[in-house]
Each structure stands twice: as C-alpha cells, then as structure tokens.
Amino acid sequence: MLLVYVLAGSALAISALVALNHFLGGWKPARIESLDQAVARLDADFTGFTASGGVVCADGAGALVEEAGTGHLALVLTRGEDWITRRIGPAELQSAEAGGDGVLIIRLCDFTLPKARLAFSEAEEAQRWAERLNAMQQG
Q1: Measured distance CA(118)–CA(56) in Å, rounded
Q2: Number of helices (H) and strands (E), helices first, in the chain?
C-alpha cells in the first residue's frame, strides 16, 4: 500500500511542476520578430558579425542573414525556446532547394543540423534564396 501512496504522490508532484512551468511561461516558443533581432543573436554568437541584409521567415522560426564582406550567409533558427545559429559558406553547404509552396530546404554538412526548413510567404523569395545559396556553393 505504501508503494501506491509513493507513486500517487510522485505523479501529483510531477504534475504540479509541469503546471507551474506552464503557468510561468516555461513553454513559450522563441520567435524571430525582426531582422535586427536575428542580427543581434548572430553578433552574440559570432563576435564581430556584421550584417548587410537578410530576411526573416513568415512564421518567425528562421532567418537568413548576409555577412558583410564575406559573401557568406548566416542561418538563425528557433527550436522550442532555443536559438540555433550557423555560418554558411561553400564548405558547409550541400544543397538548397525551393518548393512551390514557399519552403526552402537547406542541407548542411553538419551532423547536428543536417537540414533546415525555412517557410517564406512567397515561393519566388524561396527560389531567390535557393539560387543565391547554390551560386555560393559553385564558386
């Protein structure tokens, strides 16, 4: 009988912690509100990062930012409450494909982030970025 009380008490305590975390906003997903916010995050992760333009995805879950003077791009993604940043140069890029639905799929040479999916509001924008990435890879 003691085991039943211990299991019930544990389940109740865990449920209370989950509810408290939810109440305090512990599960609010990160969102990229502006290009400036994405650039600030890149500057925090890559000291001295200087942006020369970019775009934020329609859903606020990703951004592509041009790095001034290098011809490289930087990628900012949100995953839950966390942010993922990567510099993308020819050596880091496998391929980029744009779908007709405005989705850009970037395949990277990175086992921790092999594929990134960016949703743009227009298919033409996804196509332009895919062409830019593929041109960067070719030379």
Answers
A1: 9
A2: 3, 7
pLDDT in tens, 110-137: 999 999 999 999 999 999 999 999 998 7
Do the beta carbons of residue 129 and residue 98 sit within 8 Å?
Answer: yes
3-class DSSP state for residue 57?
coil
54-82 tens-digit pLDDT: 999 999 999 999 999 888 899 999 998 88
pTM for the model stands at: 0.77
The SS3 call for residue 9 is: helix
Question: Rounded distance, CA 90 to CA 72, Å?
Answer: 8
**Cβ-Cβ contacts under 8 Å for 64 (sequence gap 6 or more):** 54, 55, 73, 74, 75, 76, 118, 129
State the total domains in the chain.
2
What tokens appear for 46 in the block?
């890559």
Range of the domain at 75: 35-138
- CATH assignment of the domain containing 80: 2.30.29.30
Radius of gyration over every alpha carbon of the chain, rounded to an integer in angstroms: 20
